[in-house]
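Researcher: Structure prediction, please.
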Amino acid sequence: MLHYLRGDGIMRHCFYSFHYEADNWRAAKIRSIGAIHGAREAYDNGWEAVKNGSEQAIKNWIAAEMNGCSCAIVLIGSQTAGRKWINYEIEQAWNKGMGLVGVYIHGITDRINQTSRVGSNPFNGFDVNNVPLSNIVRTYDPAGYDSATRYANISQNLGRWVEEAIAIRNRY
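Model: Predicted structure follows.
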């Protein structure tokens, strides 16, 4: 889930949160954006190695992956919201003072060239001082008429969205 992303000339270490089984193909496309812009390519996230481990092993892995990150990018697919480990990652990112941003990826094709239906906002159900986290964290549904144009929209804007998420988090 770790990836270096160029944001306004600054290298940012970001954590990617996504539903692995349903969206790993789409997520791999998004995670490769930094490589396209000359940053270090995203490596396999290692989830396969820990997903069947103990809860503590998974928590330790998430903590290690988040270490040194300034922002968590939640890639929102049709089944992302409400998942145990996605919720845990959102909570941990917020508690660590990381920026949080959501990007809808239902319009990005998977390995069999299919898109999916839009998912619910995964930040619903979290509160910060009686304010819904979904009112604080911004989510983006990339514009475009097909997967390629949506990918281009994400590629052009992800750095700005990350910087914005970090600035928003710094206000809370």
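Model: Confidence is low (pLDDT under 50) at residues 1-5, 35-43.
Researcher: Thanks, that helps.
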